[in-house]
Design brief:
Blueprint lengths: L18 H13 L2 H33 L4 H49 L3 H7 L1 H43 L1 H8 L1 H39 L1 H6 L3 H54 L4 H13 L1 H9 L1 H18 L21 E9 L5 E10 L4 E5 L6 H8 L7 E6 L6 H7 E4 L8 E2 H6 L7 H10 L3 H5 L8 E2 L8 H15 L3 E4 L7 H16 L3 E5 L3 H5 L3 E6 L2 E6 L1 H7 L2 H12 L3 H4 L4 H4 L3 H5 L1
Parallel strand pairs: 3-9, 3-10, 5-8, 8-9
Antiparallel strand pairs: 1-2, 1-4, 6-7, 10-11
Helix pairs in contact: 1-12, 2-3, 2-5, 2-10, 3-5, 3-12, 5-6, 5-7, 5-10, 5-11, 5-12, 6-9, 7-9, 7-12, 9-10, 9-11, 16-18, 18-19, 21-22
This protein binds adenosine-5'-triphosphate.
Subcellular location: Cell membrane
Membrane topology: Multi-pass membrane protein
Pfam families: ABC_membrane (PF00664), ABC_tran (PF00005)
Length: 613
């Protein structure tokens, strides 16, 4: 937490909050827990004060023994020692527990805020920084803070209170004994000042290296198909190897630094105790203090070895937790997907049409990929987007659905430019990235509409033609699917995504599914499911198979981020332009001629004309 105050961020990394900002965040969260903080402090001070009494009483005991005091006096002192030790132990335990509770609340709050902010991050930010860094923060960094907050920090605060009160007690015996004990303080401080500036960058570097390593691993796993396809295995392994070695080297250097620090701490302990013993000897010889007082000072100081060691040695964990906290506050401080600049209430859309006007877009720092694209989808109509790979179809679909914000131009629903959250509430998208969440199938579907009844889920599955296979699963709708559960086929997973769309029941649907990867039989199933799921909705569909374009009301041909043609399937075929080239290429690559034929439009989409016929 010693960095500059401005959050720092690499072009491809999430930002890290500065020291002042991180402290301010922590102070505010602790302020919100002030009752707990006050109780913890009171009980902690009481525990530390009671823990000092036995050493003090021990000195008195030594003096009484030397004075040949009666046994009853010695027993009374021994009783005081026992009672104070027990009371000190109980109060210290209770104080540590109360501090732990406060830390636990702050930790829970931190975790919730980080995850909430992570989930609301703009997709472009996530894509730029990679999910690995974010995952490392919400897992490794939260764990590091969790460990510090629940075990280290409470003991550390108790130790700190004990050190302060013990030094005060030593000075109370005789100020010169206190002074002798204080000889150690500059040595401890010197040890810490030697250690901290060296360890801080090492810990930050360690966290960064762990984050980079996690990112590389996550990317390699998520992109395993691409890795295989381009034979990148060796290169990825080499990169992971390098990153792992970097983590190991940093960890070793951190440990080496730490052992040198321990040597310096031992030196401070030696000089402190030696100073007390010498001062005690001289003061006893002068008759300024008793042997018992001198012994009590030595015992008090010796008893500080553990708490001081605790303070110093766990500083690294606290520092690591501080570095983690700064990384999490950096995420919390990130701006969520920005609201539109005008901010005023844009009003209610007149209908369910969607119009993109003059849309420009570039991915972070990259070249522009959409150059002023305008598309108008009338209420209830179905428009297909076609074009070569990389033309910008998926980007445009994501903009229409409010997932990406255009760099220029507008998206209007029913004539109104809605803010992103209201746009997303009206437009649902099914993307190529289908994720089946681990858990019972019915719960996976209820993610789309929490509280949906079993009957509603069944009818959504029926709409997309998935009810039969879902009922046939080992536990029907309660079958555990996703990671570690029953494995679903690509087609089944995509049917689930479409069933979620049905449950959401949006007036506007954007489809960008990977039907082309489903094989021709699966693709036909999915085309029918998509048509059923989008029936009655305004639909923009990225036509990965051109049969989807053939059944649309209108086809928009996109190339290099620009619209090059627009019209019905028949018009475009007649025009003999780019669409014809795409259609011919599609026909040439489709094995069965029957699947090449454009399916009867009435089979897929019910339009006013087809329902009349
Ligand atoms: N996350 C990203 N970061 C940077 N550039 C991107 C990103 N996603 C897409 N692009 C680039 O934007 C351009 C348009 O991509 P897009 O995926 O929208 O095309 P597409 O027509 O949907 O292609 P496909 O049919 O292969 O899905 C391409 O040049 C692509 O490389």
């Amino acid at each position: 937490m010693t960095g500059p105050d401005q959050p720092s961020a690499g072009q491809d990394r999430l930002p890290v909050a500065g020291g002042r900002r991180t402290w301010a965040w922590l102070r505010r969260r602790l302020g919100a827990q002030w009752t707990g903080v006050t109780w913890a402090a009171l009980v902690g001070v009481l525990g530390a004060a009671a823990s000092v009494v036995p050493a003090y009483a021990l000195g008195t005991l030594v003096d009484r023994v030397r004075e040949h005091a009666p046994a009853s006096a010695l027993v009374a002192i021994a009783a005081v020692i026992v009672v104070a030790a027990v009371a000190g132990g109980v109060a210290t335990g209770a104080g540590t527990y109360l501090i732990g509770r406060v830390c636990g609340h702050v930790l829970a709050d931190l975790r919730e805020r980080t995850v909430a902010r992570a989930l609301s991050l703009p997709v472009t930010t996530l894509e730029r920084v990679g999910k690995g860094d974010l995952l490392a923060r919400v897992s490794t960094d939260v764990a590091s803070i969790g460990k510090a907050a629940t075990s280290v920090v409470p003991s550390l605060i108790s130790a700190f209170l004990l050190v302060v009160l013990s030094l005060a007690a030593m000075a109370g015996l005789d100020w010169r004994l206190g002074l002798a004990g204080a000889v150690a303080i500059p040595l401890y401080v010197a040890a810490l000042r030697w250690y901290l500036p060296r360890s801080a960058p090492k810990y930050a570097g360690e966290r960064r290296a762990v984050g980079d390593n996690a990112r590389l691993l996550a990317e390699s796993m998520q992109g395993v198909r691409t890795v295989h396809a381009y034979r990148l295995e060796q290169r990825r392994l080499h990169d992971i190897h390098q990153a792992s070695h970097q983590v190991r080297d940093i960890a070793v250097s951190v440990f080496t630094l730490f052992t040198r620090f321990v040597g310096r701490v031992n030196r401070a302990e030696f000089f402190g105790l030696a100073a007390i013993l010498v001062a005690g000897f001289l003061l006893v010889r002068d008759g300024s203090v008793t042997v018992g007082q001198s012994a009590a000072a030595a015992v008090l100081f010796h008893r500080l070895f553990n708490p001081i060691g605790m303070l110093l040695f766990t500083f690294d964990e606290v520092q690591a937790a501080g570095a983690s906290l700064a990384r999490l506050v950096g995420v919390i401080d990130l701006a969520p997907a920005a609201a539109p600049a005008d901010g005023g209430d844009p009003g209610e859309p007149a209908d369910t049409s969607i119009r993109l006007s003059g849309v420009h877009f570039r991915y972070d720092g990259g070249p522009e990929v959409l150059h002023g694209v305008s598309i108008d989808v009338a209420a209830g109509a179905r428009v297909a987007l076609v074009g070569s790979t990389g033309a910008g179809k998926s980007t445009l679909a994501a903009i229409a659905a409010g997932i990406l914000r255009p760099g220029g131009g507008t998206v209007r629903v029913g004539g109104v430019a809605l803010p992103p959250d209201r746009l997303r509430a009206r437009v649902a998208i099914v993307t190529q990235e289908i994720h089946v969440f681990a858990g019972p199938l019915i719960e996976d579907l209820r993610l789309a509409r929490p509280g949906a009844s079993r009957e509603e889920v069944r009818s959504a599955l029926a709409v997309v033609g998935a009810l039969e296979w879902a009922k046939a699963l080992p536990d029907g709708l309660d079958t555990v699917v996703g990671e570690g559960g029953h494995e679903l086929t690509t087609v089944q997973a995509q049917q689930l995504a479409l069933a979620r769309l049905v449950l959401v029941n949006p007036p506007i649907a954007v489809l960008d599914e990977a039907t082309a990867e489903a094989g021709s039989l699966g693709a036909r199933t999915l085309e029918e499911a998509a048509a059923a799921a989008t029936r009655g909705r305004t639909t923009l569909i990225v036509a990965h198979r051109l049969t989807q374009a053939a059944t649309a009301d209108r086809v928009v041909v996109l190339e290099h981020g620009r619209i090059v043609e627009e019209g019905t399937h028949q018009d475009l075929l007649a025009a003999g332009g780019r669409y014809v080239e795409l259609w011919r290429a599609w026909e040439a690559h489709t094995p069965t001629s029957s699947s090449r034929q454009a399916p009867q439009r009435a089979n897929l989409v019910r339009t006013p004309e087809s329902s009349k016929s």
